[in-house]
């Protein structure tokens, strides 16, 4: 009896081992498709610090370039990078001094570089470390009870000179007045000149809101009248002319704080930059990921080259 039981158990054990072995071999040679997420996209990782913002038309290929010096809403890869050559309008009034006419310069609002949508006025922003909560951010301690209705003016004598560079580089935007010039002709610094702007662009997820602000400011920014007035009254214009504004936007899109971080030396020019921000508000609701301590705090520069 015991012999028959042991014999049956041995046979059952052998059959079980053979069955498991067959299953394991089958898993090796038989491909079992795994479920995939059709909407899954690759993660793009790159260091965006120190890169310019390219506000161009949506590219047709949207290919990820191997290298790029600009970020934008969509990826773009080109074989040869060029930017449209800036044009200079002819002077319309006679100057009282021999200084360079602002109408013959490339006017910009923004950081140390600028993108080109209008040959007269341009705009750019400080280039700061990029992440979802500090894009274009400035030191929060600088924002302290500055009402957007408060007018900042330049005191003292006009500055006679101004360095073209600074300790902090700038992200470029065109903040010019309304223009019919296509986005494909944006001007960006440090590229070879060509008929149009074709540059490699890395897509950045947090630039859409700032591009929207840029395009709103473009409709209002008009530095030519105050610059002409200042030069006509004896101001010695030395380019570049730069004013940096601190701007805070509330979660509802209202302008909550506005003041001057760095004056240009031309009071009328500074006031035009302040007027541009005030007249452009209120803005659309900012993305929640850009809010920090109940506001989106930014530094915007307006430069006349």
How does this model look, in words?
This protein has 305 residues and is α/β, with parallel strands linked by helices. The protein has one domain (52-89, 100-304). The protein is 20% helix and 16% strand. It has 4 helices and 11 strands. The protein has helices at 2-29, 208-218, 224-232, 267-280, and strands spanning 52-53, 70-72, 83-84, 109-110, 123-126, 170-173, 193-194, 201-203, 241-249, 255-262, 296-304. A hairpin with a 5-residue loop joins strand 9 (241-249) and strand 10. The radius of gyration is 29 Å and the shape is elongated. The N and C termini lie far apart (105 Å).
Key terms for this structure?
11 strands; 3-stranded mixed β-sheet; 305 residues; elongated; single chain; 3-stranded parallel β-sheet; alpha/beta
